[in-house]
Amino acid sequence: NDYSRQPVLAELSHKYGVPVNDRPLPVRLDELREHIRREIRKELKIKAGAEKLREVATDRKALSDVAMIVKKANSKLNELQAELQQLESQIILTQGQPQSPPRDYSNGQ
Hints:
It holds the Pfam family HR1. There is one protein chain. By secondary structure, the protein is mostly helical. It is built from four helices and no strands. The chain has helices spanning 2-5, 7-16, 25-56, 60-94. The longest helix has 35 residues, at 60-94. The radius of gyration is 20 Å and the shape is elongated.
């Protein structure tokens, strides 16, 4: 089972709701990578919007709220970038490996 051999894949698939199915491992890894990249783009847009709000905010409450949004977006971006790095490492590790254990046909089985 690919998920028992690659806990990163299992953890991220569960976290992001990427379905477990019979597609080859490289396909699933690419799907996860694209999903994380979409999440990163979304957080970057949230952060950019909050920074624009900061420019027009006038009272302390609004500035505080915007600062919290930026802080949360930065935290989420750091988490996503770390996950993407983990996944990229997993992709490198799995390149060139057989998808299932090799079978020994030398003994006639």
